[in-house]
Specification:
mainly alpha
Amino acid sequence: MGCFVVSTVAALGVAAAKYVVRHNEKKKALQVEVEPKEYKFGSETKMSKRLGYLEMMLWGGSFLLAGEHLLHGEVSLTWPFLTAVTEGPEAVSEMLTEMGTVGVAMFGAIVVAWAVAMFVVDFIKFRKHKENKVVSEVK
């Protein structure tokens, strides 16, 4: 009934974390580096951009689930938005149980999918960088 609320709250938290990380990245970019940095695995994509990907995945899942719940009549467009609140304490208990099980499991699945995608992208970029480095050393 309200499992999309977990992803929505998580998306808000990730958005806040993204802005803090972006601020720190901008502060770090202002510092002058004298020595060239060596390429490290995962260093090509900024963390704020990675968090942006996670945020978009969470928002997308939240909106799709909210629409699905709206179509099935579990959510209304008037106060209180979650229909379980008007149906009594048993319905609220069922809603909170669903949020704690299905909502948290969905959030975990999204985070795992994001982490795997970020690892695969970094691995491909790292291999490409190593291949380019080997080719440039041979020349």
